[in-house]
Amino acid sequence: MPDIPVTTQPTDRRIGLLATALKGRLTELGEQAAERILAPSGTVAYRRLVPIEELRASCRAHLAFTLSSLTGRHGAAPATATALRRAGQGVPLPAVIAAYHAGGRMLLEELTAEARNAGHHGLEALPDGAARLLGLIETGANEITAAYRHASGAATGQVGSPALAELFDGTARTTEALWRAADALRLPYDGLFVVLVADPPPGPAPELGNRLAAHGIASAWSHTAGLLAGLVSVRDQRTLERLLTVLQRQATLRYGVSPAFTSLAECPTGLRLARLALAAADTAGPRVVRFDDGPLAGLVADSPDVAARMARSVLGALLDLPAEQRTMLIGTLTAWYAASGSTEKAARALHCHANTVRQRLRRIHALTGRTVTDPVGTAELYAALQSLRTLPPSALH
């Protein structure tokens, strides 16, 4: 795919001037970056596996992209292409990341020196320029990690990885075992994680891991208990929001999402809560369901026998009404909760008068002994409604 230039607005024109000055030295800076990577204290793998001219060309490409980004104009990022090439050459991912950071540190040093040479205005722009540069470096490192994992088959190709199975079933408990599993899956040992589960259709596994990798999000996938399950490294809250956005836009399956957790030892709990989120999902609702968005429904799905007993106890005689009357009263109560307790809004949703809603709520009180004006009664009625929505009708008889 050809590079398509993208124009953005620089934060400060003075940053663009500093970057433009450095672009005039691109060949020299490419040489310096390669030397930094190949230095005695640098990355041994590059001296063994990557031809020197190729390394210099790669350094120039990354420097050109980064400096152009600082000026507000750039084409396609070279991070993914670099990762795929290095994976094919057998360079370990830690070595690729170390080399990338070595080049980034060199560029930051040169940007600082250029700011000093530019005098007062250059130094004023330096803090913002350095912050933007560090952000670009971090983004590039994340893209390299995700693309490298994809190239090595850990995204969707390793569906059924033993390391992932050990995390999900809790076999990996010790620090050493968790480190080993993280290394095998090419995921970070710590940070922020979520588990996704989906009920996949027959046939090949969907390419969600590849799509996430394209957004710089690393993941590993397996089939477990008839579900497609993924462990996703989201690193921080911003990446978690990006993950949810990608899922909402591109999901072809319905996904349950666990709460975020920070230790790989919590994978079994994450898998369980993601399953509960999926089990409690409304088939007419959104395709991406987070456990945190409806924990009560998750609890109902977790204990269906207890939930059915609770619903029968709370709703009592209401469940014994003829189907038409039962549906009308349950629909009214559901609309009242959806309207945040507003009788008028519920009436508009039901296309009836507010007094009609009040009359139906009074009848519910008479049948169940619980009123929506009492906090405890309101909570119990809502929990019973969640049970009705989640459980099959046969469970309530």
TrEMBL record:
UniProt xrefs under Gene3D superfamilies: PucR C-terminal helix-turn-helix domain
Coiled-coil ranges per UniProt: none
Ranges that cross the membrane: none
Pfam families: GGDEF_2 (PF17853), HTH_30 (PF13556), RsbRD_N (PF14361)
Domain PucR C-terminal helix-turn-helix, chain residue ranges per copy: 329-386
Residue ranges constituting the RsbT co-antagonist protein RsbRD N-terminal domain according to the UniProt record: 28-155
Cited InterPro entries: CdaR-like_regulators (IPR051448), CdaR_GGDEF (IPR041522), PucR_C-HTH_dom (IPR025736), PucR_C-HTH_sf (IPR042070), RsbRD_N_dom (IPR025751)
Superkingdom of source: Bacteria
Domain CdaR GGDEF-like, residue spans: 174-279
UniProt family annotation: Belongs to the CdaR family.
Protein name: Helix-turn-helix domain-containing protein
Organism whose genome encodes this protein: Streptomyces tricolor
